[in-house]
User: Which sequence fits this backbone?
């Protein structure tokens, strides 16, 4: 029997690329996002792989439980959970609508945490295959410093990194892999959705297939944290030594 990978945010960008990579590696897929038509199109592209489409808005409180129940009702088990769905919002904190920022926290933090909790028992109980079982969480290089004009987004990604690194330690020796992928700017719909197309970051993007491949390979090798690209790795390394007040200023400058 083949293991199953559940990928959130599979309808585009990095999640779309993950879907191709995990399918190629021999996983069955459960693909999740709001855009059912895009998911169905991806399902057609992945002919030869068993792909289950589950449209779900993860910004709705309780969505993780609803999604988990849908998977159970289909009698499916999940061996790999890829918490990729997420979005950012650019603007002065007090001027961005609170409801939109709450939705961002719901997707980037709550749904990710709840899905990890809900599927962990299944992942633990799953047999060991040649390819690992576990959780691949998508943070960002935003996790390494404060991000003026995207304060909530940067903070949400710091949560994802801290949360996942803690689980690496808690579950050491259990056969479950926890990996955090920290992409830098990537050429997807992210900047449009975030209203951040004016920022300097858009000139430094990596291709989403390269980013997803780095995450996939890092997960397969059981890496704790994966930062794709030499420039992003340098930034992540430098953030260990630069005072946070300075890195906040730099992030603010880059935003303009
Ligand atoms: N692009 C970058 O520069 C960058 C850098 C660092 C980290 N990241 C992270 O990488 C991950 C993937 O983003 P991306 O760059 O691939 O952006 P993207 O192209 O905008 O893709 C985002 C995905 O998340 C899904 N999504 C958004 N809101 C959702 C919701 N409420 N419920 C369910 N699914 C939802 C979208 O699907 P639907 O719209 O169909 O729901 C889409 O499939 C995110 O966690 C992002 O924070 C991106």
Assistant:
């Amino acid at each position: 029997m083949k293991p199953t990978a559940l990928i959130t945010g599979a309808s585009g960008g990095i999640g779309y690329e993950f879907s191709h990579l995990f399918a190629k590696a021999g996983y069955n897929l459960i693909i999740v996002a709001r855009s059912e038509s895009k998911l169905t199109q991806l399902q057609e592209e992945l002919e030869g792989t068993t792909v289950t489409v589950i449209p779900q808005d993860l910004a709705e409180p309780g969505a993780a439980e609803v999604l988990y129940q849908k998977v159970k009702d289909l009698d499916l088990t999940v061996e790999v959970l890829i918490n990729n769905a997420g979005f950012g919002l650019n603007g002065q904190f007090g001027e961005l609508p609170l409801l939109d920022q709450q939705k961002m926290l719901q997707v980037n933090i709550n749904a990710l945490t709840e899905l990890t909790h809900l599927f962990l028992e299944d992942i633990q109980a799953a047999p060991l295959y040649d390819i690992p079982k576990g959780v691949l969480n998508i943070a960002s290089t935003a996790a390494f410093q404060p991000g003026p004009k995207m304060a909530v987004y940067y903070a949400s990604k710091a949560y994802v990194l801290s949360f996942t690194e803690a689980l690496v330690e808690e579950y050491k020796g259990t056969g479950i892999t926890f990996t955090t992928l920290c992409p830098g700017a990537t050429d997807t719909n992210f900047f449009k959705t975030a209203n951040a197309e004016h920022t300097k970051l858009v000139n430094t993007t990596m291709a989403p297939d390269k980013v997803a491949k780095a995450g996939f390979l890092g997960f397969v090798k059981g890496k704790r944290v994966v930062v794709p690209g030499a420039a992003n790795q340098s930034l992540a390394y430098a953030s260990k030594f630069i005072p946070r007040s300075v890195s906040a200023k730099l992030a603010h400058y880059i935003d303009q």
Remarks:
- The mean pLDDT is 96.
- The beta strands are 4-8, 28-33, 51-55, 80-83, 133-138, 176-181, 225-226.
- Residues 219 and 237 are 20 Å apart (CA to CA).
